[in-house]
Amino acid sequence: xxxxxxxxxxxxxxxxxxxxxxxxxxxxxxxxxxxxxxxxxxxxxxxxxxxxxxxxxxxxxxxxxxxxxxxxxxxxxxxxxxxxxxxxxxxxxxxxxxxxxxxxxxxxxxxxxxxxxxxxxxxxxxxxxxxxxxxxxxxxxxxxxxxxx
Amino acid sequence: xxxxxxxxxxxxxxxxxxxxxxxxxxxxxxxxxxxxxxxxxxxxxxxxxxxxxxxxxxxxxxxxxxxxxxxxxxxxxxxxxxxxxxxxxxxxxxxxxxxxxxxxxxxxxxxxxxxxxx
Lengths: 149, 118
Fold this sequence. Notes:
The structure holds two protein chains of two kinds. Chain A starts with a strand and ends in a 7-residue tail after the last helix. Chain A is built from four helices and seven strands. Chain B is α+β, with helices and mostly antiparallel strands. In chain B, a hairpin with a 2-residue loop joins strand 2 and strand 3. Chains A and B meet through strand 1, helix 1, helix 2, strand 7 and helix 3 of A and helix 1, helix 2 and helix 5 of B.
């Protein structure tokens, strides 16, 4: 798998979700893999503008990622490049991936479709050339958990 | 965020590029073990071609082979697959946890905005 897509329904209007995604105050409230704090967040929300987020995980390690805003359609769509600038995934040092976020207005609020694409350039190149995008993901479903116990 | 061997991941991904190899692994995951000739049966390719695929899987550490007499039995090895899956799941966890908090935060903002309007 070289891209990851998550869909969530949020009981808030798209403009509020968009603001949470793009303001430093908003990002400080949610960004990161565990309950560790966001240490710094900067955003310059215009095409070609950059963002930078630094966070500390509960294990004490600090990581920073940064990127550039590539598409901005407020409050419907946000596309940005993304890379680890400190810590993060060592396999991906120096590699640029891509985040695409779509916000759809629904009765209950907003449906957010979040895609982290072009993960790990080498693997994604192989997937495009040889047409196996998502293959690993499919394979994973074949495996029962006892094989990994 | 955890240091994984890049070469192991590369070998795993490279081995999984091929559809026949994925089918072999999927079958081994279901059946635990199989002989080489059993594995070759569903495919329209010849035994030597299947042996080559098994070599790639073996070099990537995805399978083990044992020989009794003339019969070679193949088994799946979970380690490298687990590593590749862990790598993907770390991203999934990262964004899944983040989006959960994003939702909670946006919903509290929505609650405040709705109250204000009343």
